[in-house]
């Protein structure tokens, strides 16, 4: 009996035997649960607002999906690649941004200009994904490709310009040309990247004595521009005034010209009138002109008329006769009698002298 108990205990401790069909069903059930879990976790995916998803069927691009919850066939039938296609991104050339700290990258920033000088150029490139298919299949590392292509564009443009132009007036023109070349590179290699903008932060000589020298050059150029602007301002102020003064002188000269022409025409008319009278009676007119001229030359002269044709000196005291006549007429306050008009007296005297000569 005691010998049977140990044997009986050994028989009761054996695990129950499962039928072959039961084991098979159990394995299939576990596999089905695992498969359903895998399908459930790999067939549904979510796309955020700033993202877009590319669906690859057996590794081939088939479609795109936008924001929301979507279904796909499980891998390896279909695979999904989610990219921030609606997000505007930035990369820096020549430095890296670490919070508020800027870490320079000399290998990217330093480059040679067309006149064999060294310049440091820092830039920021703003971009976004334009074509997901090209972005995923045509370039392996999009960000690195964009950085290399931006650096190559900057070097090619600055390498053809002089340092003086690059650090002063040519910054905007160089910036536009670099942006255009970078856009051409993206189109040429079909990267699917859209270049929104490229802006230089700094284009300057290396730090040290070279920087100080070029800063002095820049200050001198700014001072030159200031003086040029002041000179242009003075020019713009003086030229209108000078033109006004010139116009006033021209108008004054025109007025003087017209005045002299009119005076000359009046003198001609007067001369023509005198000449007409002179032609009628040359002797009288000649005497009158002589007397008028003498009156103008000697307005206070006393005129005596004599006959120089005889041997004796004839003297006619006109002044005494005039003074006596004026004294006899004036009783209270004798005053010298006014001299008659020179023209009439002279003409009368001339006629009397002429008549006396005729009588002789």
From TrEMBL:
Entry keyword annotation includes Transmembrane:
yes
SMART domains cross-referenced by the UniProt entry: PHB
Q: Which GO terms describe its biological process?
A: proteolysis
**Record Pfam families:** Band_7 (PF01145)
- On the tree of life, the source organism's domain of life is Bacteria
Q: What is its main location?
A: membrane
Q: Which UniProt keywords apply?
A: Hydrolase, Membrane, Protease, Transmembrane, Transmembrane helix
State the Gene Ontology terms under molecular function.
peptidase activity
Name its cellular compartments.
Membrane
Protein role: HflC and HflK could encode or regulate a protease.
This chain belongs to the protein called: Protein HflK
State the organism named in the record.
Answer: Paenibacillus chungangensis
What is the primary gene name for this protein?
hflK
